[in-house]
Amino acid sequence: MESSVITQVQKEDVQVSPKAGQVSRSALKQPQSCNIFKALFCCLKVQDGPKPLPPPPSQSALLESQENGTVVKLSEVSLLPEVKAEDQGKICVVIDLDETLVHSSFKPINNADFIVPVEIEGTTHQVYVLKRPYVDEFLRRMGEMFECVLFTASLAKYADPVTDLLDQGGVFRTRLFRESCVFHQGCYVKDLSRLGRDLNRTLILDNSPASYIFHPNNAIPVASWFDDADDAELFNLLPVFEELSKADNVYTRLDQLREQ
Ligand SMILES: *[C@@H]1O[C@H](CO)[C@@H](O)[C@H](O)[C@H]1NC(C)=O
Ligand SMILES: *[C@@H]1O[C@H](CO)[C@@H](O)[C@H](O)[C@H]1NC(C)=O
Hints:
12 strands; TIM50; Rossmann fold; RNA polymerase II CTD heptapeptide repeat phosphatase activity; three-stranded antiparallel beta sheet; Dullard_phosphatase; binds 2-acetamido-2-deoxy-beta-D-glucopyranose; five-stranded parallel beta sheet; alpha/beta; EC 3.1.3.16; disordered N terminus
């Protein structure tokens, strides 16, 4: 099962479907129907409810041999650079892109906020991007309160230009893409322990529980967003983040907030 999923993903990454533009948006939601969408956006998301916590990645998964034969522990290599002076003392928030801040598809829509050309194997495809309601205000405010990091399981060639358009204020200090995820049991997991930040000062905002399956206690869940113009999740989350930004320890504060 697991190996077939891996094979599928590798195949998708090189496959080009000339009919991609005709595939309906619902294809994005179905983990079993793999196509060009999934090659580009984050594939294989678990849609419903958190699964039980799996065992931590095996030691071998965290070891990488260098060319000269030296073995380095990947867990010792931080995904993030040193904290910038203006972010000293701030909690780090890892923020997902697709279905958390925006929704993208190859299907042409006339109300797209951005249209981003993405080249896949020599063919340029237009990606139509919708912004989630309140995303601009949300990012501006989050940037004031936290060290914000974009962390997406999508490919950089799609997510990077979208983020250029979305984050014109430069809120995201660092952008992490698919290659920074750990591929674990068919899912791209965002392993917060590799960031190089204290876990008790780290939060993750993501619509997919699979993304934070290693660190469920650091998570702020958010409903998946596709196109609901009346959605106010980001707006409603701001007071929660306001509270968390003052915390010494996010675990303690989240426990308190859950009890309220
Ligand atoms: C092997 O290469 C790494 C950098 O890739 C370097 O840090 C390390 O010192 C090298 N080790 C030896 C034994 O040459
Ligand atoms: C957070 O964790 C670090 C070690 O990872 C520890 O040194 C520090 O005291 C902890 N801070 C709080 C407020 O619990």
